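INFO batch 0412 | record 1 of 1 | parsing
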Amino acid sequence: MNATFELRATFPAELESLTISAGLVALAISLAQIPIDVAAAVDLALSEAVTNAIKHTKPHIKDISLNIAVDSGEITLCVTDHGLGFAFDDVPDPDFDNHPPGGYGIFIIKESMDNVTYEKNETANILTMQKRFIPL
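INFO prediction complete | emitting tokens
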């Protein structure tokens, strides 16, 4: 099946909201018949992206938006938050020799997905992640 669809959600910037993003991506994975190895990578990348958005959002803006699109054997995930933003391309790889307690998220996202872009505009940060797949 070559499914084409889009799912959207806006949810509070709280760790409890990870269940919303996980449920939405699980639905997309099922509808698009994405193989388990690709599904695991997509789920992991989304979890890291939403966790980072929750941790770094501005206190007075409490919502995160998620858009999931599937088209022609590719799943695209866009996580939008209203945090301060960061220099995405300047984030160093983790220090694997010393294993610090954090700093792995962007690395995991980049390694899990085929294409990752970050955009900061006047009102939001938009992390877009894409992964190609062959439907089951």
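INFO post-check: The mean pLDDT is 91.
INFO record closed
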